[in-house]
Amino acid sequence: MAGANPGIGAEERGQGEAIARNLREMSRLRVPTIATITGEGGSGGALALAVADRVLMLENAIYSVISPEGCASIMWKDATKKQQAADALKYTANSVRSLGCVDDVLGEPEGGTHNDPALAMELVDERLRFHLAELDAKPLEQMLEERYQKFRNIAQFYTTAE
C-alpha cells in the first residue's frame, strides 16, 4: 500500500475517521494480532499496522508514515529530493526495527521474494506460527497490556545534552 490519498476528496469521504476507527477497533481486539509488511506499508495504512501485537516485515519491504516523495515535497518543496528524504525517513526493515516499529525482519529468498514466492511464503508462515504461539501462551490481560505499552512507546528516542 502506497498510503492514504492526501487529497481533500478522500478527507471529505471520511478517510481520516476510517483510519482512526481502525486504530480504535484493532487496539480493542481480544485476540492476538499480527501484521506482515510484504512490500510497502505507508501513511494511514502504516498506522493501522502498528497496532498489531506483532509487526513482521520482509527484509526488502519499506514502512513509513509518508513516501519519500511526499516528505521531500513537504520538507524541501522539491520531490526530486526523494533520496535525501528516504535516507532521513529510515524506512528500511532494519532501520524500522531499530526504531521499535517492527518486531521481526523476515529473510527472503536470494534476490527477493519475487524470485521464489513459494519459498518466501514458507518463511513467512514459519515466523507467523512462531509469533502466534508466543502470543497464545500469554494470559489475555498481559497480551493486551503489552499491546498498549508497545503502541504508546513506538519509535521513541531520547538524546542527552552534553
Description:
- By secondary structure, this protein is mostly helical.
- It has one domain: 2-enoyl-CoA Hydratase, Chain A, domain 1.
- The protein is built from eight helices and five strands.
- It is globular and about 50 Å long.
Summarize the structure in short.
This protein is mainly alpha-helical. The chain has helices spanning 8-12, 15-28, 43-50, 68-75, 82-89, 93-98, 117-136, 140-153; strands at residues 34-37, 40-42, 54-58, 62-64, 104-106.
Order of helices and strands: HHEEHEEHHHEHH
Give the CATH H-level superfamily. 2-enoyl-CoA Hydratase, Chain A, domain 1
Remind me, CATH topology? 2-enoyl-CoA Hydratase, Chain A, domain 1
How many strand units?
A: 5
Number of domains: 1
CATH class: Alpha Beta
- Characterize the largest beta sheet: strand count, sense, and whether it forms a barrel: 3 strands, parallel
Number of helices: 8
Terminal-residue CA separation: 41 Å
Strand order of the largest sheet: 1-3-5
What best-fitting shape do the alpha-carbon axes yield?
globular
* Alpha carbon gyration radius: 17 Å
Structural class: mainly alpha
CATH architecture: Alpha-Beta Complex
| Helix content percent band | 40-55%
Strand content: 5-15%
Overall pLDDT metric: 87
Low-confidence region ranges: none
Which features would summarize this protein structure in a list?
11% strand; 8 helices; 162 residues; two-stranded parallel ribbon; globular
